Amino acid sequence: MQQPLVLIGHGLWLQMATAIVARHLQPFGYRCIALELPAKIKEPAAVACGPELATLCQMLGLPLQLVLAKAQATFSLGSQYQSGENRWFVPFGHYGLNGSAVEFEQAILQLLQQEPDSKAELFSIAAQAAHQGKFALAPANRPDLAEALSYGLHLQSAEFAACLKHFNQQLGVTFLSSQTVEIDYSAQGQISSLQLDNGAVIPVGYCLDCRAEPTADEASRTVQLFSAQDTTVLLQQPYSSVIQTSWGWLVRLPLQQGSHWFSQCTDPTADLPKIKHELQQLTGQTDWQNYTKQQPVECQPWQHNHLRFGQAAAALDCPLYNGLTALQYLLIRWLDLLPNQSSCPATALMYNQHWQQYQSEVQDFLHLHQQPLATKTGQAFARLGRVLSTETDAIKAGQWFGLMQGLGLTPELRSMLLAKRTETEIQQGLRQVQQQIARLVAAMPSQIDTLNRCLQQLSH
Amino acid sequence: MEAKQRIVILGGGTAGWMTAAALSRYLPQHGYNIQLIESAQIGTVGVGEATIPHIRQFNQWVGLDETEFMQATGASYKLAIRFRGWGQANSDYYHPFGLSGEDLYGLPFHQHWLWLQQQKAARLEDYGQYSLAVLMAQQGKFSRPVADLKDPASAFNYAYHLDATLYAALLRQHSITQGVEWLDGKVTAVAQHNNGDIAQLILEDGRQIDGDLFIDCSGFSALLIDKTLQTGYDNWQHWLPCDKALAVPSEKDPTPPSYTSSKAIAAGWQWRIPLQHRTGNGVVYCSSYLTDSAAEQELMAGLEEKALAPARALRFVTGRRKQSWVKNCIAIGLSSGFLEPLESTSLYLVQIAIESLLQYFPSNPVGDIERELFNQKMQLEYLRVRDLLILHYKLNSRPEPFWQYCAQMAIPDSLAQRLEMFKETGHLLEYRQGLFQPASWLALYLGHGLQPQQLDARLGALDPNQLQSWFSSYQHQLQQMVNAMPDHHQVLQHTELVGAAVAPAFSLYGHRG
Predict the structure, then answer these.
(1) Neighbours of A33 (CB within 10 A)
(2) What is the pLDDT of residue B47?
(3) What pLDDT, in 10s, does the model give residues B24-75?
(4) Are residues B366 and B221 in the same domain?
(5) Domain extent for A359
(6) Residue B155 resides in a domain
(7) Is B141 designated active site?
(8) Hey, are the CB atoms on B431 and A412 less than 8 Å from each other?
(9) Do the chains contact at A344 and B432, CB–CB below 8 Å?
């Protein structure tokens, strides 16, 4: 392909996309141009990224310590949920210590039926560590723990974007900026060039569009609510907090110096003063800002040589699921297929179908938060205690299980694969795992110690 | 005390006894009563002599020791299927249980191979020569895979050629030991409850067998799922037009290959499955294009050993029951559908059905959710296998009328899209659920000589000489590993030669798959 890859958008999404594309394609001599446009929607001050980010940083060659330092980041082992008096943890990692242990979650569910006061998180090393404020990367001699201790990060958006921009500049990406952009199409419907406000024309091989704004006919209105920075330092919390409210869910992301609260209301007629009052009661924060956002509802991301990644990711973006994760996925899957021609409709069709799968899995996860038994996934869990197979890792197995059992879904049927095991055998097996987890967590450092050590390594 | 749940399995072929063995392995006798009804008057089809690696997991799952299994079923090891005459009359390629090469510069191996081919690289070998499983199969070697992902010997897997009748007998013995009640009888009537559920099977001698859950393993007759419950059938013959088969055993091959042979003929294909004590042979053909006598001539002329019995005929309709689980009846095996054994998937589909049944095991009465999940799962599994089978027929440039029909026939959208994608870019998009990952699709595309129009955009930046050196060195390394392995026929005589067993990987392609 002779023409450059042009990425357009703004803020963190543009920088992240540029970093992924430029780092992947730099060894192959590709020319990448990033065109910065003004932001049309408010970007949250902080973001929560899942375990994909650590893998991505490794792939980019971006040291974790640098990200922690520049973006005031903290670690996240999952989310602590609260719904009324009910509290539960939803980890990124799997339950138990062996990810391929047969019917482990089923054994937990059986125990919970026998001992209603017991908790599934006793068998999650992530949950146990999180509750004790502990965090450690899986040591090199225990690669078996890496999945169970999968972690994400909480980051300051603007600072992380700046860090990535610097990284991109070092990679040799050309940065341009413009207040507006006009897209020129060929007779075949391909983007041929982009026109900037200064009259410059950029020829385009592929246009990777990271803008989140929807086209008018494909949007729903949502109200986003952001708090000012909460100055309470929560370094003893290597997790996000998720609290159920009368209109949905409220999320708190702790950073190194304070934290941020976010919420979203999908009912545009909702009583905002009442919501803000409830927010104040729940958080103690008085300064709340709200924005009405046009959110795309669906998107076929690959259309000719126009890749509407921003819109596709924005359709999923909400306090409970960060669109940045979706954007990373879209980019990496597209790079896996990097075509040598600007028109490949069959490849685009297959890619878009795969994206529909990803999207539907995330939406299923989000719907579970509202009406668990209205989803097939919730119904299957409530009947059989099983998490349905997925085509992507948009949501990790531990998250599905953690959320559904935490929401109080109790299976009607027991696992027949455990039917010959006695209750005592199952309990003994589980207790052994619980003890192993307890020993491992006891030896883990606190998040504060791990953070300090990482930051010290950077200064050396 | 709750009454025992009564499970009645109708049919004692491989599907019936695999089901009985698995259910009796997991369901406690104090809560479940399992009966299997088999009629000595009704023969079994005995499909599934060639298997895929998942059978190893099944055996482990039901508690069969590999050495005992090998001896009891006369099994040999299987690393691949060799396809001759498919695509073009002179083609000869392997679909291995293994991967070829390794990803390089973040790009799949086959992209590099295709690119070097475009560059007319002088020392480029056939694609299969970069697969350990293919080299082993071609050179008559065998060794077990290892679990260390850094070792190229982790990138393959193995299955068996087995005697299906002996396998059923072994599973029967195993099941009876585990408490399954074996009844010899022929079903003459089926009684239903008012809600349509099956209540009772009435045998020829007047016995009445009550049940709560019925598993229909009655083969093509589909006595419960179709004759009683009248579940419809999706006929796929317009995509897979073969409708008859002839099977004949021949004498054993003293040095049996570790692959199944599939050779295309004028209107179908011929199989050869080497066991320890005999060789299984047969033809699958389309009766609109080939007469029965011509098919038999082809079969007999293609035998490499002396026939041990007359050929046995079989007629089938390729397709699938619209629902595998209806009311309180679950169809497993041929009663739930038939796909020709071109990719040795018959026992795999039985295995998946049993595993899914245990995962979604119902209470009494059966709930809609477990039924729906089971049916969805089985539909997907059949469709995935179906599409790969159709591809074998579609991608050909043979001159015979049958093959011309296949080359020109319309194909399902799911396959057409996948095929077009490969033609456009040479890339594949894998799926998680269902069999056959990119390695299998690639084996077929490349084996049938399909060339993508374009390749990955990054390849142009690479140095072909450097790449060629890596290819040569890699192939040399594989060849050295194969040289050090024992011969397959020696391994069959001395199982200690095989090496330490590792847990079977749930993949066609080994631990790296």
Answers:
(1) 20
(2) 55
(3) 999 999 999 999 999 987 766 655 599 999 999 999 999 999 999 999 999 9
(4) yes
(5) 5-406
(6) no
(7) no
(8) no
(9) no
